[in-house]
Amino acid sequence: MTDITISHREMRVAESVSRQLSNALTRRKLTPAFSDFFVTRLAGMTLLIAVLDTAKLGDHSPYICADLLHQLSTDLGGMPVYLSNHSGIRIVILLSPLPKLARKVNLPLDVPRGKLAIGVRFTGQPVLLDWEQFLHLAVLGSTGSGKSIFLQSLVSQAIRDDMQVLLSDLDQTTFGMLEGHPNLAAPIATTPPAALELIEQAIAECDHRAELFKSLPERPQKLSEYNALAVKAHIEPMPRMLVVLDEASSVLTALGGAKGAMGQALATLGWRGRKFGIHFVFAAQEFTKDIVGPVRDQVGLTLCFRIRNGQMAERMGCKGAERIPDNRPGLAISDRHGPIQTYFVEQSALGQRQNLLPALSELERSLFTRALVEGGRLSRAKVIEWGGVTEWQARKYLEAWSLRGWVAKDAKADNAFTITPKMLVLLSNHPTAPTASSQLQPAPAGFNPISFPE
Ligand SMILES: Nc1ncnc2c1ncn2[C@@H]1O[C@H](COP(=O)(O)OP(=O)(O)OP(=O)(O)O)[C@@H](O)[C@H]1O
Ligand SMILES: [Mg+2]
User: Fold this and answer.
1) pLDDT tens, 36-62?
2) How far away, in angstroms, is 134 Cα from ligand 2 center?
């Protein structure tokens, strides 16, 4: 156990915790086959890392289950215990007090494409989601708790990612600045019947997409598969679509509750949308009893901002949201990731087109600009030569750009890639690319908390 920044007192605590940890495993009839213990600091926290010798464990599964982490935490008097198992099995114990979540964290500009960044955890790690995995989302919170700002951060990322959006905003306070935006697939709905029309439009889009899916002999099962095939077949890829219902409970109640027209339409969109890359976000101050079940069945992630009703929080899998203080807007409990400080976006920033444009990297900007000057074409060889990247990277880049409709293969020109009008618009609107800020750097290797004991 060596680290010059660790005090003697911390070392003594670490040694005592190591012994307790071994005893706790033995009591559970597990082998305390530790090959190493060390103490380290990460993001202001002191961590004890206990490395298990996997060769001596037999079946690994009892050592990596979330229940064990909760039990160990209880045995250790409530110390948070995490697991890191992407190279060997390490049990990580937080010796220092939990760092406080920042009160305000701006949405970074360098969110990786195709991902959704929702906020940061205690560890400072960003929570990044994959649209295809979480599918639909439920957002709950009392007035002033941060729902609308969160929805704005989702929609701004969706637009930056070239998604189409359908928005419902009865109060007309959340999305007004986006009125008329080209990524809106319909005008913003401001009445319950108009919101129902949005959902019906999204279902009609499912029908349309189903036809296009059928037209490919490979019968893709999800949007990413369809798009990969489409690019190969020189067909235009399909954008994902995001449907956001703010004040969703009011809309539902006005239209007959879970069994009414809106409830039924949402249920249909819930299961059909998955395959076709059509996602919805359902936000409300409260869910009535009849809709909690159906909502939970549909969504892959629930985020609960401050609410009064502890039972509701618990039913949504977000125990503890009732204890979030009034003065912490933006702080939420997620059913999958525990406490998260969600990202903040300035309302005014959303109104500026520039903030909603896909972020071009330096490399992309310089490559596209050069290609334009030299005749409007790109090829793998040019990307390798001009960009100084490997052949594999060049292929990945071209694939990703085709998927986004930034380049298209020109069968008439020896299958070279031509720059599309979409990219021209992007380039002309993007005088300065955001610098590669490091806000979204991955956590240090080996630290991958999967569980967060209360
Ligand atoms: N992520 C955040 N970080 C910091 N402050 C935030 C965050 N989200 C919201 N706030 C603050 O809280 C205020 C209220 O947030 P917001 O309008 O999103 O609440 P709401 O849940 O939509 O309320 P309502 O139900 O009344 O519409 C914001 O104006 C902002 O000052
Ligand atoms: Mg609101």
Assistant:
1) 999 988 766 788 999 999 899 888 889
2) 23
In Å, the largest CA–CA distance within the chain is: 73
Could you tell me if the CB of 344 is within 6 A of ligand 1? yes
Instruction: Please work out whether the CB of residue 146 comes within 6 Å of at least one atom of ligand 1.
Output: yes
Q: Is the CB of 104 within 6 Å of ligand 1?
A: yes
Nearest to 24 by CA among 164, 321, 16, 42: 16
Cα–Cα distance for residue pair 178/164, rounded to 1 Å? 12
Query: Is the CB–ligand 1 distance for residue 294 below 6 Å?
Result: no
From ligand 1's centre to the CA of 303, what distance in Å?
14
149 CA closest ligand 1 atom index: 18
Shortest CA distance to 304 belongs to which of 325, 324, 326, 289?
Answer: 324
Q: What does 173-201 look like in DSSP terms, one character per residue? A: -SSGGGTT-TTBSSPPB-SHHHHHHHHHH
**Residue 273 neighbours by CB distance under 10 Å:** 25
Ligand 2 midpoint to CA 301 (Å): 19
- CA-CA distance, 167 to 397, in Å (whole number)? 32
Task: Give the number of C-alpha atoms closer than 13 A to the C-alpha of residue 431, restricted to the C-beta side.
Answer: 2
Closest C-alpha to ligand 1, atom 25: 143
Hey, what domains does the chain have and what are their CATH numbers? 8-94 (3.30.980), 105-355 (3.40.50.300), 360-431 (1.10.10.10)
pLDDT digits (tens, 9 = 90+) for 246-281: 988 888 888 888 888 998 999 999 999 999 999 999
Task: Compute CA distances 371 → 234, 364, 395, whole Å.
Answer: 21, 10, 16
| Probe target for ligand 1 pocket from 107, 149, 173, with the most ligand atoms within 8 Å of CB | 149
C-alpha 160 to ligand 2 mean position (Å)? 22
Question: Can you tell me the distance from the alpha carbon of 243 to that of 167, in angstroms, rounded to the nearest whole number?
Answer: 6
Q: Give exposure, 423-447, as e/b (b: 16+ Cβ within 10 Å).
A: beebbeebeebbeeeebbeebeebb
Amino acid at 331: L
